[in-house]
What we know:
This protein has three helices and 18 strands. By secondary structure, the chain is an alpha+beta fold. The longest helix is centred in the first third of the chain and has 59 residues, at 2-60. Mean pLDDT is 81; it is low at 1-20 and 56-74.
Amino acid sequence: MNTKKNKQDDEIYILGSAFQGKGDRIMTRRRWLVLSIGLTIIILGGGFFVLSYINNIKKEQTIEYYFEPEETVPLSITVETTDMDDANQKGYIETQEETVNELTLLVHIPYHVTMSLSLGKPDKSDSTIIFITQAADIRMDNKRIVGEFVLEGKQIARGLSKKGFCAVVDHTISIGMADETPLLQQSIESNGFFFRQYPLVHHGEPIANNPVNKSIRRALAVRNEQVIMIESTSVLSFHDFSQALVDMGVSDAIYLVGGRDAHGWYYNKESVRHEYGIDYLAYPDYTSFIVWRTK
């Protein structure tokens, strides 16, 4: 009796153990399944958040936040820079200090010069160079130029990230704002120059731009049908800078590389060179400059 009872007990114990082991494996698999689903949801949610963040950053660099009113007037203003009476005079820059809305701005006015673009820092020993300042923005990741850029008829960069533009075609400077402009192709066909930047003023109206930080601001502008460069002496928002340009009589303007580090120089009428920013020993290959040369 004892043997049979023990055998039955043994059988019951063995069967019970097998059933419980299988159940544990099933429960373990279910737990792993639940954990896997949970991790997948977390990863997908995190990925969606990262993509949304990246897209928001990209939106700040695209044209979606610009507003371009319907126009029945030309999209740009052109200024002829050739003057036969000035052909034999040495170029120089006249700098004036103006106060607008309690803000101090420096106005650089070029005389007897022609405008072009260059890649890489121009040579200080080049006696024909009267004024340089950085032009187009470059990307932080690959150090390439942001937006369309034409150098002596060769298109170096493509893309429409900013609506503002400057074209130099047959010694005529055009500053404007448009998604597309025939001046791009004309600059290619005429061995000219073209670049894009943030628009600041268009036909006497300030243009809103998305970046909200404050910095030293610079602009290539047209006032009284003359192309000039204007820079702030204090850090300003895009809004305040654009409004100050309008209030000082600027009809059209695009942004130039700003900040305290952006380097440039100019010669005054007495041939004294004035520099601003930091003169780095080396620049990224696609750092671009506006170059004014004496005629």
